[in-house]
Amino acid sequence: MRIGELARRTGVSERSLRYYEQQGLLVAERTPGGQREYPEQAVDRVIRIQELFAAGLHSKKIAQLLPCMRDADGGPSAVATPRLVTDLVAERARIDRMITDLVNSRDVLDEVINAASQARG
Amino acid sequence: MRIGELARRTGVSERSLRYYEQQGLLVAERTPGGQREYPEQAVDRVIRIQELFAAGLHSKKIAQLLPCMRDADGGPSAVATPRLVTDLVAERARIDRMITDLVNSRDVLDEVINAASQARG
DNA sequence: CTTGAACCTGACATCGATGTTAGATCCTAC
DNA sequence: GTAGGATCTAACATCGATGTCAGGTTCAAG
């Protein structure tokens, strides 16, 4: 598929898809005319990239991480280097803290929301 | 307490604390000489502000939200306006999605980490 | 062909919280 | 009073993903 369809199916802008390629996160074949041609796999991959960005990883670390997982299910393919594993463990801890914070904030919002809806019936 | 101590106790930089004040998130008394003097409550408040920032809320929305909660436990004090409640419900949904994404990414990292540690014994 | 939509590259803009620096003032201890 | 650490204001810098725009090329359908 070409870039427009991939953008539509993933909800990620064409700009971002080109950026991902530039960062080495996403590879594309080229048509004779120079246009990008993506395999079906790319959809899952892009979604995974987005999730990792949302988890606060930077493109450089994602680039290291991606070779260690299959596109389809995110399971491991290559084996991570010890150095990378150290990084990933740290990221994992950071994500854990982030989740804790988010749950806290969500609870706070819930209290305010509930208080308001109760006060008004 | 003064700004240095508050910074130390919350882990938030002095720069950020001044920024919070400028954004209307944090109020401080002033000494005759013009230095900020914070009440004990400020510690909890700053931590809560940080959590909300981490949850992706912008300072403007946090500023609207804060009057609706007590410093200590985050429970509601003032009642949110209907407009604000609408916003908060949307934020809550966004946070939910964010949590889902984070859990996904954490699982992905776990798989890669575990695969690496198994491959090496 | 030709036309219009889709795509290309490259450059510049943006956003928001935070870092950093400079120069001045305050506060505390001696 | 004075030295030095803490604080003040104000301005500018940063970071990274993404938006946007311009000018040119490709592709598919008539």
Q: Which spans of chain A of ≥5 residues are poorly predicted at pLDDT below 50?
A: none
CATH class of the largest domain in chain A reads Mainly Alpha
Q: Given the C-alpha coordinates, what overall shape of chain A results?
A: flat
Count every beta strand of chain A, where a strand is a DSSP E run of 2 or more residues: 2
The residue-averaged pLDDT of chain A reads 93
What letter string, H or E per element, gives the SSE order of chain A? HHEEHHH
How many domains of chain A? The number is: 2
Distance between the termini of chain A: 52 Å
Helix content of chain A: 55-70%
The CATH topology of the largest domain in chain A is given as Multidrug-efflux Transporter Regulator, Chain: A, Domain 2
Just name the CATH architecture of the largest domain in chain A.
Answer: Orthogonal Bundle
Please give the order of strands in the largest beta sheet of chain A. Answer: 1-2
Strand content of chain A: under 5%
Q: Multimeric state of these chains?
A: homodimer
Largest sheet of chain A: 2 strands, antiparallel
Radius of gyration of chain A: 19 Å
Work out the largest interface and the residue count of each chain: A-B, 44 and 44 residues
Structural class of chain A: mainly alpha
Structure report:
The structure is a homodimer of 121-residue chains. The first copy, chain A, starts with a helix and ends with a helix. The first copy, chain A, has helices at residues 3-10, 14-22, 42-54, 59-65, 82-120, and strands at 29-30, 36-37. The longest helix of chain A has 39 residues, at 82-120. In chain A, 63% of the residues lie in helices and 3% in strands. Chain A has 121 residues and is mostly helical. Chain A has a two-stranded antiparallel sheet. The first copy, chain A, has five helices and two strands. Chains A and B meet through helix 3 and helix 5 of A and helix 3 and helix 5 of B. The structure holds a DNA duplex (30 and 30 nucleotides).
